[in-house]
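Methods: example folding runs. The two proteins below were folded one after another, and each record is reproduced exactly as written to the output file, sequence line first and structure-token line second.
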Amino acid sequence: MHEPSPRLGPAFLLAASELGMASTAHLFVREIAASGGDELVREAALGLGRDFPVLGCIATRWLAGERAPRPAPDGVLAATHGLARLLVVGLETAWLDVLLPACRGLEIGLLIGDGDSSADFRRVLANYEDLAVGVTLAELHRWSGRRSGLLCFVYGSDGHVVRVPGAWLRVSGPDVRTQFAALIGWNILGAAMELYPRWLAETAASDFSTIVEP
């Protein structure tokens, strides 16, 4: 029986800092499967799943027949109808790669300075030149208004509780929510993960005005 390399954990965290947890998990699972088939994917789910529950979730779903993600921006675009600005909380490049080119006429900001290194975000923003700009927490008020929205990546939901990046809790207080016309959650995992959401936070689904399902 193969064992996943002990270097996979640090490599996963490094890649996730620039690609996002789910985007990196899909990439790693695909490469693990190409290297050792479903047996090695199963070992990765067992060996790394508790430390990296998003990776464990996606590996388990791979074994159940769910392969590469098929991000579709339609639901998000419908939720942003009438908005002029959209501030994105969290980072998932597989989904942003599809969304940002479709947001014609919509000014997009990516929240930075929430614990991620500035060097990482410089490289991320370089990939989205002319499509998005970096926005710090100190600049949050400049992005609010009657035609402004917040978009947060959601990592699974049971219909009542959703799992979100920790940065969402820093920008979604009652004083902030009233300053934005729409608070959109983009659920990129679907059903709730079975494992404790390490690296993520939990909040009520009712915090959002709209949750876009996969």
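Second run, written to the same file directly after the first:
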Amino acid sequence: MSVALDGRAPWGDVGPESETDKAPTVLYRKVGNSYCYTAFQLPSLRDHLEHENKSHVTVEYNVFATFGHEGRYTLRSVDGVLLAVGNRIVQKPREFGGQILLSGDETLSCP
């Protein structure tokens, strides 16, 4: 996925969850003309990504299903930094995300 360390994604700024937070780090991928994204607040991971200075990183998700239907998901790892193993949280990234639909694309399957 692509990385925006300053909260500035191709579709515009991704704001913090509250007025006291700094701009989140945003992980995103383009699907058609639209985007799937996950934004998070975890200073140690942001510092790691800034130090590595990569525009793209490998991201793994834990996807939880109920009766065969995908439901919520959490970040498992970003650029090899482990955040969660199943339901067990290793580092809490305060994440949020979703999809940005552009140019008439239909609902995306994110993550």
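Comment on the second run: The chain has a mean pLDDT of 86.
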